[in-house]
Design goal:
Elements (H helix, E strand, L loop, with lengths): L1 H42 L35 H28 L6 H22 L12 H25 L2 H17 L13 H39 L1
Helix pairs in contact: 1-2, 1-6, 2-3, 2-6, 3-4, 3-6, 4-5
């Protein structure tokens, strides 16, 4: 059972990562490059002879280090960035596929392409769409709340939404449906952490386009994970039965 789960998760995660990486390179990577240009222009020093504000030389929240401080390593644009993007996507997709299969088996649902797709859509709602209501995907150069606060709220929202969907869609009784709704709405009533400042050089349309495309890529990734995992689970089961 465990070997079958791991095999199906690896195969589904790899297929989903290939699709997602291709979509990212076409849809979201150009927007990231454009945002980095805006950020570079905004942080560029003024022309010689002009008085420069004191904060120009200080490190700020977007990863630029002050003189004498170590800069955070980032992959170089081009092939290196594409390779690291693909690797990170692969690790995430395999992890999500493994989690999807484990949850389905834990609640007693036989993975098929149809049933796994339904659970995958629930996964997208829990870890992508629900957190994006309060913390949409952000481009480089966007003002944001402290990382620890955002991570804590994201985890709380994802877990609460997942539990809420489980109570509503799996348990399906009045009291659990009510409890599920409370869990789903609760994090949003508490509110996502907000940035202290909202000034940014990025056009609002560019940020909105990136958020929409990122969510679209995430949905496709989850859908491929669900369909591929269900199909691989059935295929590996038939091979084991015929062995």
């Amino acid at each position: 059972m465990i070997l079958r789960l791991l095999s199906a998760a690896l195969a589904a995660g790899f297929l989903a990562a290939v699709v997602a990486t291709g979509l990212q390179l076409v849809l979201t990577s150009p927007l990231i490059v454009a945002a980095e240009r805006y950020e570079t222009q905004a942080s560029a020093p003024s022309a010689p002879g002009l008085i420069q504000p004191a904060h120009v030389h200080l490190a700020h929240d977007h990863g630029h280090a002050a003189p004498g401080e170590a800069r955070e390593w980032q992959p170089a644009p081009g092939l290196q960035r594409a390779a690291f993007t693909g690797l990170a996507t692969l690790v995430g997709a395999v992890g999500y596929a493994l989690l999807l299969g484990a949850v389905m088996l834990a609640v007693g649902r036989e993975p098929t392409p149809e049933s796994a797709l339904g659970f995958a859509v629930a996964g997208f709602l829990a870890v992508a769409l629900a957190p994006a209501v309060g913390l949409p995907p952000e481009l480089p150069g966007s003002e944001a709340a402290p990382l620890a606060a955002r991570q804590a709220w994201w985890v709380m929202t994802a877990v609460s939404t997942a539990l809420g969907l489980y109570l509503i869609l799996v348990r399906r009784v009045a009291i659990t449906i009510l409890g599920g709704l409370v869990l789903i709405v609760g994090p949003h009533l508490a509110g996502a952490p907000e940035a202290a400042e909202t000034k940014t050089a990025l056009p609002a349309g560019l940020a909105a386009q990136f958020a929409a495309r990122s969510l679209g890529v995430s949905f496709v990734t989850w859908a491929v994970i669900g369909l591929a995992f269900g199909w691989c689970w059935q295929m590996f089961g038939r091979e084991r039965a015929n062995a």
